[in-house]
Design brief:
This protein has helices spanning 6-21, 39-52, 118-123, and strands at residues 57-63, 68-74, 79-86, 89-90, 97-98, 105-106, 128-136, 142-149, 155-160, 166-171. By secondary structure, the chain is α+β, with helices and mostly antiparallel strands. The chain has one domain. Strands 1, 2, 3, 4, 5, 6, 7, 8, 9 and 10 form a 10-stranded antiparallel β-sheet that branches. A hairpin with a 5-residue loop joins strand 9 and strand 10.
């Protein structure tokens, strides 16, 4: 069985690389963090369900300012089909990734909004929110992980509950 967070770490590396290469992604002109990408999670999952049919299972969905990655579990959760949702459009799937394993979740669990970030934004007003990941957990649970960067450049992964309360903080 894969360790929890394997998909998230791989996706986070890609999201961080993209975010780091684009200037001005930290917020709007008033210094407010850009968190509009959180809505892309539900939109991306809905687009996948429209493409593949309802009732899909997911290993992970990770959204950032530039795009959203969706890893659909297939073949009894032994493989994954990666999708990218960008600019309101679902791109064609990437090739299937064999050898996947881990916990999955359904579309209902991926329904989040900006309130999931409220505590982090209140407690870390200078931080740049780089990504929000939802990953499957044991017993059909889900885990929400926020990747945030301090103005000094440090990066942390903050595990939050659905209501945004902080459960754990891990430096990256």
């Amino acid at each position: 069985m894969r360790r929890p967070g394997t998909w998230r770490r791989l996706v986070s590396i890609g999201v961080v690389a993209v975010v780091a290469s684009v200037s001005g992604c930290g917020g709007d002109d008033q210094g407010q963090p850009d968190t509009g990408f959180v809505a892309d999670i539900s939109a991306a999952v809905a687009a996948v369900e429209a493409e593949r049919g309802p009732g899909q299972e997911y290993f992970e969905v990770t959204a950032g300012p530039q795009f959203t990655n969706v890893f659909v579990a297939v073949e009894n959760a032994t493989a994954a089909i990666p999708y990218v949702y960008r600019d309101g459009q679902l791109e064609p799937p990437a090739p299937k990734l064999s050898g996947a394993s881990g916990f999955t979740f359904t579309a209902e669990a991926a329904d989040v909004d900006d309130t999931i970030l409220a505590t982090i934004l209140d407690e870390l007003p200078e931080a740049t929110i780089e990504a929000l990941s939802i990953e499957g957990g044991e017993g059909a649970a889900v885990r929400y992980v926020v990747t945030a960067r301090s103005p000094e450049g440090g990066v942390v992964e903050i595990t939050v509950a659905r209501d945004g309360s902080v459960l754990a903080v891990d430096p990256v």
